[in-house]
Design goal:
It contains 13 helices and no strands. The longest helix has 17 residues.
């Protein structure tokens, strides 16, 4: 049985390594533990081949995508840059840096957040501010407004440790954190901490409180009843866009180097349960909207989900 599992794991790893450069470089880093030089060499291919190159080819002359900043979903500049970050397009890539400038110059608002619709809303929106912060921090845009943006995102944290875009004046009157907004804020502050470690004290503290918010909910359960809070949280789609799910939540805990907590065990068990007999994970249905191209077929074995699930489970088992 052990030999069979080992053989399956080896075949799955080979299957991942045969995928797009965006998959391959992360598998080399997270599952093979390759040397930094090898990882960077593989990562540079994202800009020249496969999905990353195809997205870069579609950039407009003014640095945007699909002629829009936040819409159309999912081909606008914001969501294309969010996807390029997930692919691992290297920081500092010239086309990405140009788009970073477009996002910041267009959206930076007087409250230090990102507001692409100032005529409609008096304040910045937390989900959008978080997504843009994640993008700017990953690609390494050296601009003091990035630090102001990080402070703004951290300051929107609610009393329960979560974030909710509908808790802000003009957006609603929510009193409880949102899983969707919280994961976007946590990922953004994690990216910012990596980008500006010397300036990230508030970002680290906010993340600790935000992780506790997710842990109280065991990543997908009601803290009152223990029931699944939303069935969509248990389905793994990629790209996630602004949506939360258990695999995305676990991948954040792994990425930020959080200490193991027993309250993560339900989420890890759910990921393991989704593994097919061949050792792979299928892709759940995505979210309606325009795309430049489909990376994977829904309902079929997914390299994205398999990569992320394997590295999350490895992290949990090596605690």
């Amino acid at each position: 049985m052990g030999t069979r599992r080992q053989n399956t794991s080896g075949a799955v790893l080979e299957w991942l390594l045969e995928g797009d450069p965006a998959i391959r470089w992360q598998a080399v880093r997270d599952l093979q533990g390759a040397a930094e030089r090898t990882v960077r060499r593989e990562q540079r291919r994202v800009a020249r081949e496969g999905w990353g190159a195809r997205l870069l080819e579609r950039q407009d002359a003014d640095g945007r995508w699909a002629g829009g900043i936040y819409t159309p979903k999912w081909t606008s500049t914001t969501y294309t840059m969010l996807l390029l970050r997930s692919l691992g397009l290297p920081p500092g890539e010239p086309q990405a840096m140009r788009a970073c400038r477009v996002l910041l110059d267009t959206g930076f608002w007087q409250d230090d957040g990102i507001n692409f619709y100032p005529r409609r809303y008096p304040r910045s929106e937390t989900c959008i501010s978080s997504m843009v912060l994640a993008v700017l921090s990953w690609f390494g845009l050296d601009d003091p407004r990035v630090d102001q943006l990080a402070a703004h995102v951290a300051a929107q944290q609610m009393a329960d440790g979560g974030w909710n875009c509908r808790a802000m004046p003009g957006y609603g009157a929510a009193t409880h954190g949102s899983f969707h907004t919280t994961i976007s804020a946590l990922e953004a502050l994690c990216e910012y901490e990596t980008f500006r470690p010397a300036r990230a004290k508030a970002a680290r503290a906010a993340q600790a409180r935000g992780r506790e918010f997710l842990l109280v909910h065991r990543l997908f359960r009601s803290h009152r009843t223990g029931a699944v809070a939303n069935s969509v949280f248990t389905r793994f789609a990629f790209p996630a866009r602004w949506h939360y799910d258990v695999l995305r939540g676990l991948d954040y805990f792994r990425e930020c180097g959080a200490a193991w907590d027993e309250r993560l065990s339900d989420a890890c068990a759910l990921v393991e349960k989704r593994r097919a007999p061949d050792g792979r994970w299928a892709l759940a249905g995505g979210y309606p909207g325009k795309v430049f191209f489909e990376m994977e077929a829904r309902g079929q074995p997914s390299r994205w989900n398999t990569l992320r699930a394997l590295r999350v489970l490895r992290w949990s088992q090596n605690r």
